[in-house]
Queue: 2 jobs
Job 1
Amino acid sequence: NAGVTQTPKFQVLKTGQSMTLQCAQDMNHEYMSWYRQDPGMGLRLIHYSVGAGITDQGEVPNGYNVSRSTTEDFPLRLLSAAPSQTSVYFCASSRTSLQETQYFGPGTRLLVL
Amino acid sequence: DAKTTQPTSMDCAEGRAANLPCNHSTISGNEYVYWYRQIHSQGPQYIIHGLKNNETNEMASLIITEDRKSSTLILPHATLRDTAVYYCIVRVGSTSGSRLTFGEGTQLTVNP
């Protein structure tokens, strides 16, 4: 199993540009989520999904959209990038949403100029 | 989810046990204690979790006090590769979504 994969590893955007961060898992996990981590801080939840077709907002959802059309994929879309969205983005998955350990991807480093 | 308090940083000599404390005085009866770690620039990695009994796996041991208001993660023989930020998280799972609330964690530095 590849586990949780994320692409790209690094991206530079200009303010106002849009892009999609890709996340995929091959463990047939129902639960997937997106976090962002700013320098020297812990992770903050952006959006999560408890299954295909179901998504919900986390702690810091503004400026981001998600969809979950398949169990495997959970893309994160930045609608109009802002410098405040410069961060490292981590995708995670777990078998279910109940007391399950989460598996994290390697992260995408995003710089918005 | 209950709030946790951890020391900002700790040092440990290679080969010795690393004991990382966590206070969670407002924990409720159905909340689990989870430990994750994050090695520099990588995604967080699950270590161990427990409810009220002590737990041990191939990576670490988790000691939870009888009143459940604090816990200690023990790495029995720390290596240089254990240098990382360690997060103590108290969480209750639900069908509406399982979210991990990360604090700032403890930076553990294992010294040769």
Job 2
Amino acid sequence: QSALTQPASVSGSPGQSITISCTGTSSDVGGYNYVSWYQHHPGKAPKLMIFGVGNRPSGVSNRFSGSKSDNTASLTISGLQAEDEADYYCSSYTSSTPFVFGTGTKVTVL
Amino acid sequence: EVQLVESGGGLVQPGGSLRLSCTASGLTFSSFWMHWVRQDPAKGLVWVSRIKGDGSYIKYTDSVKGRFTISRDNAKNTLYLQMNSLRAEDTAVYYCVGDSGIYTFDYWGQGTLVIVSS
């Protein structure tokens, strides 16, 4: 099972919107609505930001949103803030492993 | 507040063993699937193993089958990972993760570092 493909880095200025893609196959992202996104500040515990493609857990800012089209899921962060600077990972349920993660994206706030 | 605290990591020689523990608080532990997920610079995040709340279902990723054993003690709110025949490629930060049953990693610990090296 290969890792899901994410861009290595994405950057934006405060207040802007950015989108992180997560590309898989019909055996994972495209086949199930079990795509999640995690925020990871190094040295801290990763935090669930989006589950079930586009659902936010209680307490997560509505600046974070998720979507999916075919084999690609996306995380959009609107109104970018300094505290959003972190690593972001997607994950998906799969027909084999049964879970696979993305390669990770470093978000930089300029 | 949910807290997952891992312990037991360290430096071990190839072929050696380690037992990781994860103590949970702030959640109904027996209601959660629990996972071990590891992260290393080369492969990123990799799912390792999971166990159902009552311990009746267990699964492993292929690379650790026959070497790692996941278990839990619901009376102690503790998850374990017994790691035997360790290899250099098992070097990683190991995270304990709680899953409420919707194929999502709801809660994570801060991780414990395992280094396999001579």
